Amino acid sequence: MSGGTQRKRIGEFMMEKGLIHKDWIGPILEHAKANGLRFGEAAVALGYVTEKELRQILLQPFGNQKVFHLDPNFIPSVTADLVPLDAMVRLGIIPLGFKNEFHWFRTRQRLNLGVLNENRREVLDWAGANLRNVKAFKTFQVLPDEFLQTLELCYGIERSSLLDLGPEQIDVNLALYLQLERRKGPRSAQPERK
Question: pTM here?
Answer without folding.
Answer: 0.60
